[in-house]
């Protein structure tokens, strides 16, 4: 089976992980397994200081979770080292790895794709081409990895509720204004900026980087205990007939394909035709 994540090592202490899972970088159980393996490597490697996550697809960073994957297969995946479901495990461990994690976002990062970006230490976005959002409530589901907890800490309660309850898309520029991402840069400058910043960090001493990050983590990361209840609610909500009907209508109109609906998903979930 083809790997979904391409790894490169641009400089000592600097790794780059590129998502390449056509047609639109959907997240599925294989993605979770690969990310788990990568996080384990990051935890064990004494030399890596910074890792940048980006996408080979200019339109999709990570689209969202694959809604056509057998729910029983996802639910039955073995727990990770934290004792949580492997998706929650990957995100919790990613936030705490002894390396700086950076999401370089060009294209769509919605649902689980947004959850992944939020679990990274920093997010830099293309002002013109990045789109972030949590669309789940728009189809009748509860966001499963509790992005509410991370968003509330980043952007405040009111804006967090706007993002998760409104289920709409946020451009790179608006995401920057809200604090959803660190900053939005002109698309032509994004790669150079992120690469330069990563190389800067890779040139520093790892002990100072990691001990400083650990102090920020102590005050800013949610407790692991807040995540499993949200995933339980996700499974409950996606099993409801109303949610299944909404998803079926979206699938008929192009969900999970390289379609206009996927490109404008935030707008589409608010369309009365899907209600």
From TrEMBL:
PROSITE patterns: ENOYL_COA_HYDRATASE. It comes from the Bacteria. Transmembrane segments: none annotated. One of its GO terms (molecular function) is catalytic activity. Gene3D superfamilies: 2-enoyl-CoA Hydratase, Chain A, domain 1. InterPro entries: ClpP/crotonase-like_dom_sf (IPR029045), Enoyl-CoA_hyd/isom_CS (IPR018376), Enoyl-CoA_hydra/iso (IPR001753). Belongs to the enoyl-CoA hydratase/isomerase family. This is Enoyl-CoA hydratase.
């Amino acid at each position: 089976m083809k790997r979904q994540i391409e790894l490169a090592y641009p400089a000592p202490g600097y790794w780059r992980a590129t998502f390449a899972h056509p047609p639109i970088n959907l997240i599925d159980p294989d993605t979770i397994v690969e990310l788990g393996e990568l996080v384990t490597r990051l935890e064990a490697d004494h030399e890596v200081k910074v890792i940048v996550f980006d996408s080979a697809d200019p339109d999709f960073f990570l689209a969202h979770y694959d809604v056509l994957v057998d729910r029983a297969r996802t639910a039955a995946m073995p727990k990770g080292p934290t004792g949580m479901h492997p998706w929650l495990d990957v995100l919790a461990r990613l936030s705490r790895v002894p390396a700086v994690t950076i999401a370089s976002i060009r294209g769509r990062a919605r649902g689980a794709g947004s959850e992944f970006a939020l679990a990274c230490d920093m997010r830099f976005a293309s002002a013109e081409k990045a789109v972030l959002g949590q669309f789940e409530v728009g189809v009748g589901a509860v966001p499963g990895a509790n992005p509410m907890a991370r968003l509330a800490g980043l952007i405040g309660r009111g804006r967090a509720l706007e993002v998760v309850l409104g289920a709409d898309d946020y451009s790179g520029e608006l995401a920057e204004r809200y604090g959803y991402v660190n900053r939005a840069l002109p698309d032509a400058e994004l790669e150079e900026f992120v690469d330069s910043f990563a190389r800067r960090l890779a040139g520093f001493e790892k002990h100072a980087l990691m001990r400083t990050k650990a102090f920020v983590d102590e005050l800013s990361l949610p407790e692991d205990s807040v995540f499993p209840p949200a995933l339980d609610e996700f499974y409950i909500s996606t099993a409801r007939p109303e949610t299944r009907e909404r998803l079926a209508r979206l699938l008929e109109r192009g969900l999970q394909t390289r379609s206009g609906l996927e490109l404008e998903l935030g707008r589409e979930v608010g369309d009365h035709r899907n209600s």
